[in-house]
Every structure is written in C-alpha cells, then in structure tokens.
Amino acid sequence: LQGNYSDNLTGVKEILVSLDNIDFNQASFANGNWNYNITFPNENNYSIYFKAVDYANNISDLQDINVSTDITKPVTSIDYNLEWKITNISINFNCTDNLTNCSETKYRIDSNEWIIGNQVDFTSDGNYLLEFYSTDYAGNQEDVNAIYVLLDKTKPETNDDYDAFWKTSDFNAILNASDLTSGIANTYYQINGSGFIAGTDINFNFDGNYLLEYLSIDIAGNTEETKSKYILLDKTKPSTTDDLNAEWQTNDFNITLTPNDATSDINKTYYKIDAGAFVEGTQIEINSDGNKTIE
User: Fold this and answer.
1) Comparing C-alpha atoms, which of 208, 211, 143, 221 is closest to residue 181?
2) What separation, in Å, do the N-terminal and C-terminal C-alpha atoms of the chain show?
3) What does each of the 295 residues of the chain score in pLDDT, given as a tens digit?
4) Percentage helix, strand, coil for the chain under 3-state DSSP, each rounded to 5
5) How many CB atoms lie within 10 A of CB 160?
6) Phi/psi at 286 (5° precision)
7) Residue 179, class by beta-carbon neighbours within 10 Å (0-12 exposed, 13-18 middle, 19+ buried)?
8) Which of 51, 87, 178, 265 has the most beta carbons within 10 angstroms of its beta carbon?
C-alpha cells in the first residue's frame, strides 16, 4: 500500500496502518511518500485504515480504503447434457465467482475466433467442438473448457437391393442404411405386417408376393419414414392341361389348353404339333387326318 503525506510545521512522526482498526502498525515513510506491505490471510473483502501523527502528536483524520483479494478462478457451467439432439440447441453459459464476480465469458466453435457472450445457438447438423472460459474482475482467468456439441436433425435413409422382378430361386434382400452425422443405431423390417425385427439381411425361400416394410433409426434418435416394397418369389413351374378326350375324332375339332400358376400367374402358353415349331396360343385346331403328337 502506498501513499503520500505532509505536515506544515513539526513534520510527520509516524504513519500507522491497520486491517481491523484496532491494531495499528507503522509504515515506512520518507520524502513525502509512505508504503506498507500487507499480507492478507485469505481471500476476502478488506477495509484498510491508516492515519498520520506529527511531532506535536496531532493525529490526522482516519482514512480507509476497501480492497478485495481474489486468487480463485471463476467457474463456468452450461445447460447441455452432452447427448445427441434432434432439434436446434441453445447453450447458456453460467459463470460463478466467489468474490469479485464474473467479468466476461468467451467461447469459440471448432477453433475459430473467440466471441464474448452468454449463449450460443446450433442450428445445423454437426459434431462441434465448443470451447469456453470466463474471467473475473480480479483478472483471474478460468482454464478453457471443451465439449462436443452433437446435433443431428436429419432422418437416416435406407434402401434395398431388390430389383422388383419375379425371382425363381431362393434369394436374400439386403437393406443398406446411411446417416451422415450421428450414424445408424438400428435397421428394422417386417414382412406382411408380422411385426418389426432388427436386421438387414432378409432371406426369401417360399413362393409368395410379400410386402416388405423397413426403416432405420440413427444414434441421435431420428426415425426414418417406413418404406415398403413387394418381394416376388415363384419357384414352382406352372402346369397346363388340355380338354382332349384321347379318342379318335371324325370331324375337325379344337383342343383348348388351360394353364395354371398359383403365384406369379401365367405369362404365355406355347404348343407345337409333331415336329413343328412352338407357337403361342391356347387353342389348337385339328383339321387333317392323322395321329398327331401335341406338346
């Protein structure tokens, strides 16, 4: 503590300093200036009292100043729980200091410029590095805090590798899910409304026209809209019958072919007579004598 003094006549005999206004100690002084070294016992707000005495024992008015000692760094907390969010994020900084109070809080995102502020908003998908610290009025600076802010507002996307054509042998449909930010947590599917189960590799080995529905959920919790596709499998050959009674005929007549398929239905029917070529049709006209072979 430093100051100056003066006395018009006898001169200053002593300068006294106290922390409690009870016990006074003598300061060093010379040539109109005085100083006194103070060791504060702990952090607190102190009142320092001082007075001068001249050689005539006149005592100056008691003076005092207030001094705050603060060597403790402030502490900054936030209202973010370090989990993935699926909506816009607003983070508030709350600085506390035991004595001199907080002067300012600074933050930066992904190592960019420091910004003074008490709130920061995140509105775009990303995994952000947020750093922040505060300073108190005594000049104590907090160590830099660092967290990752996780925001994913976008639903994942799932596709399958099935080409929508009829298959004639066992096959697997593969589901491929993607999410650019938080990643895929699980993919689910169901067949003909049987209930969703987790999986991406789906085996089909029985004839049928299946309704396949599927969706994915990302790590942040975004749920994809359900997609659907019909899966077509027919491993069973069709059958064809005719209405020929296998007896000799004496007049021109027609043979009718009746095809049948329980799953994918009939596309085309072909026949040939003797060594002729196959032609398409289901009505066969017989108008010449002979013992003919029809395939």
Assistant:
1) 221
2) 121
3) 999 999 989 999 999 999 889 899 999 999 999 999 988 888 888 899 999 999 999 999 999 999 888 989 999 999 999 999 999 999 999 999 988 899 999 999 999 999 999 999 999 999 999 999 999 999 999 999 999 999 999 999 999 999 999 999 999 999 999 999 999 999 999 999 999 999 999 999 999 999 999 999 999 999 999 999 999 999 999 999 999 988 899 999 999 999 999 999 999 999 999 999 999 999 999 999 999 999 9
4) 0, 50, 50
5) 18
6) -115, 115
7) buried
8) 51
List, as own/partner pairs, every contact residues 191-194 make where C-beta atoms lie below 8 angstroms and the sequence separation is at least 24, other chains included: 191/231
- CA distances to 83, 141, 154 from 73, rounded to whole Å, are 28, 6, 40
DSSP-derived secondary structure letter, 167? B
What token pair was written down for 136? 């108190």
| The pairing of beta strand 227-233 with beta strand 239-242 | unpaired
Q: pTM of this prediction?
A: 0.76
